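Encode chain A's predicted structure.
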Amino acid sequence: MNTAHPSMNERRRPRRRHSVRGFTLLECVVAAAMLIVVMVLAAQLYAWDARERREVWRRQVAQQEAANLMEQLTSSPQAELTAEALDTLHMSAESSTWLPNGILQATATAVTAPAAGRRIELQITWEHASGEPAAPVRLVGWVFGPGGAR
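Encoded structure for chain A:
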């Protein structure tokens, strides 16, 4: 073979593939699908977080309402803590708006030890947004007569 005059076959160089810059349509579709999945998951997480925050807020409202009512009851004289008086108790308007189907139950029972007095139990129940009952908030307090428990 004569190197001075290469033949036609020898003159041909292998074709170089030009590197393609940019994205193919398939790559764009896959990236868009992944972005949609991430966005849907983020929206669900945001909605779950909002529901949980609302439920925590409702529990705090119920706890504060029970504490306010208990403070009102324990500052009353023991003789005024009758079943009829407890039946007149009701939740505040603000608490009623935050606690769907909120129910206040109050009971007073006589105790003799360590001194004569009354045991007061408050319970507030309500429903979740799904309609299921939430775990109730319970608060117990004691009221003793003059001299109190020593």
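DSSP finds four helices and three strands in the chain.
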